[in-house]
Specification:
single chain; 159 residues; alpha+beta; seven-stranded antiparallel β-sheet; 23% helix
């Protein structure tokens, strides 16, 4: 099995509208298909190195008994306005495991081709030995893209 998952979707909206959701910590919560992301604290990200906190609930995946609620710090790795955003997370496991999530946006006729990716090729040996990777499935990434589409079309954020 490859150590990377990608899936894409056409969203009939400008890349700037899609990127606005992806740079807002609450946007991540709004579009999450796993049910793990419960809330977030922090400002809209504007550059690589920016961070925010996401309040998680692992019970949604029911894959690690008694893991429950915890916080992760999201650190932006790549940031190209309206084109690319990626991030790593730091949670209970220290140092971080090294997996990367992100989105590539490509303007196309009538909207934006959005590619969601999840890469765990550079995880630590300890993380690899844990057997939990991939944490999220391609189905979850696809579901999140569907929710992103709906969220953008409904006019996120709403007043």
């Amino acid at each position: 099995m490859a150590d990377r998952i990608e899936t894409d979707r056409f969203i009939p909206a400008p890349a700037a509208d899609v990127f606005a959701v992806l740079t807002d910590p609450q946007g991540h919560v709004a579009i999450d298909a796993t049910g793990m992301l419960q809330d977030a604290d922090g400002e809209r990200v504007t550059a690589a190195g920016d961070t925010f906190v996401v309040h998680m609930d692992r019970e949604s995946l029911n894959d690690i008994p008694d893991y429950g609620k915890y916080d992760v710090t999201v650190t932006i790795e790549d940031f190209e306005p309206d084109r690319l955003i990626s991030w790593t997370i730091l949670g209970r496991v220290r140092p971080g495991m090294g997996h990367v999530y992100g989105y590539r946006l490509e303007p196309v006729d009538g909207g934006t081709r959005v590619t969601s990716f999840y890469d765990w090729s550079d995880i630590t040996e300890r993380a690899r030995a844990s057997g939990v990777f991939p944490v999220v499935s391609k189905t979850a990434l696809s579901g999140t893209l569907g929710i992103l589409d709906r969220t953008v079309r409904r006019g996120y954020p709403r007043g």
